[in-house]
Amino acid sequence: MMNTPLETLSGLKEHKRLISGIKPYIEAGPLAAFFLGISSALVYTMLAATMTQRLSEAGVNRKSISAFALALLIYSFKPLWAPFIDRYNIPLFTRAIGHRRSWLVVIGAATALALVNLALPDPKHAIGTLAIAAIIAGFCGASYDIVIDAYRIEMLKPHQLGASAGMSQYGWRFGATTASSLALIVATRANWGWAYIASALLVLPAILTSLVLGEPQHRKPTAPTTGFIQFFQNFLSPFGEFLRRDGGAVVLAFVLVSRIGDTMSNLMVRDLFHTLGYTKPEILYGDVWFGLGALFVGIFAGGVLYARLGLKHAVLVSLILMPCVNFGFGILSLIGHNMSAMIAVNSFENFGAGVSGVVMVAYLSALCNLEFTASQFALLSAAAAILGRFLTAGTAGALIEALGYFNFYILTAALSLPGIFIYLGMLRSGLVDRSIGTVGLQAE
């Protein structure tokens, strides 16, 4: 049966809509964000879920396990040296390949070496040495994040902010899944040391991406710094510019409290699984692989929310999902060892993480000023997790032993509520719009 002219025209319109919907995700900027995200996830994954499981299997007590969150706490202090990466060049390298790319290559190599060093100590006999190696790896991973985020944002054209946020999250989660899967497979067949060494190869996607695409064209270079006083002034200027904005302090307070419960919850999940008796293959299947599908659905949903609701209301939806996810882990702790329940809870968690990742990365990117991209994104992304990491390191293990896992996850759900209330106040007052930086203004 032949199509009528109207049916043919309708089909062409649908085809054009499909192409126009896909096109933003296959442009150079968003594709670069995907590969940069793979490398960005590496160290965090190896220090968070993988390290927690490694220590738990070695018989390390929960207080010591949660104390290893101090290595991740370094990520929250990266604004302290982000201005240095923003302003200073690397001799010879910068002249040859550019400012951002030279930092990517040098820090990427240092990160790979730090992960190899992390593979060497035995948790049973050298827990102190392992802790020092974890701190070094955390510093290298945080530094890699600084330059990756700056390169990603500066590579974007104004209309690519939303698509890039989604692709960055796809890349981050793909990298986290690859690192976690590779570590579990190698650890099962050999040991955890070889698992860390094998995973170090994942520093390469970001480096290769930068070498292919070149130095960002949207970067606003800053004048060279001379003298201690000028250095100190330049160090403070990115943070001063942000706080001088209308409501900048309120926005920073929101970012500080928005993910406390989420961060505390996620850092102890692998210990929960080990406590409930899940094996490495079960964790690989139920947490890593099965969760990846749900995560990709969540990232897609986050992109749809961004497009349909706009950034402001998409952020609100992601905030509401956080306490719901924590409540799900509390229920799993009561159910015990049950693969169907584990898959359901992890699918919901990954879906929520996908939605939140897209809209929160887009929101934090939109808050940045192009003159201080590395410094301000480092400040905001670090602020989003610092309280959760600090509380995890200081109290999570003791809280779990005192309250049990169910009450612990109910507490983390309650800790997500203040961020929702602050953001609602920001929406009603118009502060969300007034605090946007030059990156966000370009994207409008």
Describe the structure.
The protein is an all-alpha fold and 444 residues long. It has one domain: Growth Hormone, Chain: A (Up-down Bundle), CATH 1.20.1250. Helices cover 80% and strands 0% of the residues. Helix 18 (311-335) runs antiparallel to helix 22 (417-429) and helix 20 (373-403) runs antiparallel to helix 21 (405-414). Mean pLDDT is 80; it is low at 5-15.
Short characterization:
The chain has 24 helices and no strands. It has 444 residues and is mainly α.
CATH topology: Growth Hormone, Chain: A
Number of helices: 24
The 3D shape can be described as globular
CATH superfamily: MFS general substrate transporter like domains
How is the topology of this model organized?
Blueprint: H1 5-22, H2 28-47, H3 49-57, H4 62-67, H5 69-73, H6 82-87, H7 93-97, H8 99-119, H9 127-155, H10 161-189, H11 192-199, H12 204-213, H13 228-243, H14 248-258, H15 260-267, H16 269-275, H17 280-309, H18 311-335, H19 339-366, H20 373-403, H21 405-414, H22 417-429, H23 431-434, H24 438-443
Helix pairs in contact: 2-3, 2-9, 2-10, 2-12, 3-16, 8-9, 8-11, 8-12, 9-20, 10-11, 10-17, 10-19, 14-20, 14-22, 15-20, 15-21, 17-18, 17-19, 18-19, 18-21, 18-22, 20-21
Essential attributes:
single chain; 444 residues; mainly alpha; Growth Hormone, Chain: A; globular
